[in-house]
């Protein structure tokens, strides 16, 4: 039973991310490089957050005296700072690739970099938040035997799935806002990240945290879709699976 719970929660948490990774990233070497770069910057932000908490514990003299809410807010801000550093690096890389190409165009667009880096942020963040839970779900033991919620593992898996998707959407919106110098997009990403992290403090009242986080994921996904240039007509064309005929010019000889 423990193995079934472990594999089931892992499939829920990382199934959409694995599908996106295999279908849109794995076949492109440049996208894999961007994926690794994004994960590296997220790890740097995690290191900075850990050092910040270590310093706060040393100054207070007690490990339980370090406040959780300000620490979580600082970790969120450090992650967004790492996302900005990733944007600056990928922007420079995009310019370098454009100068090396024959036609003056980069082989990978900035929007593709935004999507892949956001996906990498989500995967590595979800892995760090879920790996210990998956290890505990394998057993031995029974969740809820002492009166706790028996839905801890399944709700943690859904929260991780939402977090991975949110980071992907945030990456698209964040890069576009940095490229076009729009403070509203940056505020949307930072505010949404702070809201999602703050809602997790309502656990184990899962009804109050899981529902709003999925609503936030849906709204952020629609915003990212619009930011990337998507439209409802494009969705209908994709679902209809109809290919538009290519325009061809036929020249007839006068002879």
Automatic annotation (TrEMBL):
Annotated compartments: Membrane
Top-level taxon: Eukaryota
Record bears the keyword Zinc-finger: no
Membrane-topology descriptor: Multi-pass membrane protein
Pfam families given in the database record: Aph-1
Main location: membrane
Keywords: Membrane, Notch signaling pathway, Transmembrane, Transmembrane helix
Parts of the chain that traverse the membrane: 29-52, 113-131, 151-174, 186-206, 212-232
UniProt record, GO biological process: Notch signaling pathway; protein processing
InterPro entries per UniProt: Aph-1
Cellular component terms (Gene Ontology): gamma-secretase complex
Subunit structure: Component of the gamma-secretase complex.
Biological function: Potential subunit of the gamma-secretase complex, an endoprotease complex that catalyzes the intramembrane cleavage of integral proteins such as Notch receptors.
Family (UniProt): Belongs to the APH-1 family.
Name the UniProt record assigns to this protein: Gamma-secretase subunit APH-1
Organism: Rhipidura dahli
Record lineage: Eukaryota, Metazoa, Chordata, Craniata, Vertebrata
């Amino acid at each position: 039973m423990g193995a079934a719970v472990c594999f089931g929660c892992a499939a829920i948490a990382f199934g959409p991310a694995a599908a996106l990774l295999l279908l849109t990233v794995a076949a492109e070497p440049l996208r894999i490089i961007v994926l690794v770069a994004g994960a590296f910057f997220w790890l740097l932000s995690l290191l900075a957050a850990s050092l910040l908490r270590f310093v706060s514990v040393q100054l207070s003299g007690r490990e339980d005296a370090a406040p959780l809410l300000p620490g979580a807010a600082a970790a969120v801000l450090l992650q967004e700072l790492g996302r900005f550093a990733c944007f600056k690096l990928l922007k420079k890389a995009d310019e370098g690739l454009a100068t090396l190409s024959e036609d003056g165009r980069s082989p990978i667009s900035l929007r593709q970099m935004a999507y892949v880096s956001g996906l990498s942020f989500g995967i590595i963040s979800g892995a760090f938040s879920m790996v210990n839970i998956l290890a505990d779900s394998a057993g031995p033991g029974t969740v809820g035997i002492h009166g706790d919620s028996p839905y801890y593992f399944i709700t943690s898996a859904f929260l991780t799935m939402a977090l991975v998707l949110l980071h992907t959407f945030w990456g698209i919106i964040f890069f576009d806002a940095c490229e076009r110098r729009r403070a509203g997009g940056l505020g949307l990403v930072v505010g949404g990240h702070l809201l999602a992290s703050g809602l997790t403090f309502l656990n184990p009242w899962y009804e109050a945290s899981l529902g709003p986080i999925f609503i936030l994921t849906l709204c952020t996904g629609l915003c990212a879709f619009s930011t990337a240039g998507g439209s409802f007509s494009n969705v209908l064309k994709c679902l209809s699976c109809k290919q538009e005929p290519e325009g061809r010019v036929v020249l007839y000889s006068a002879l």
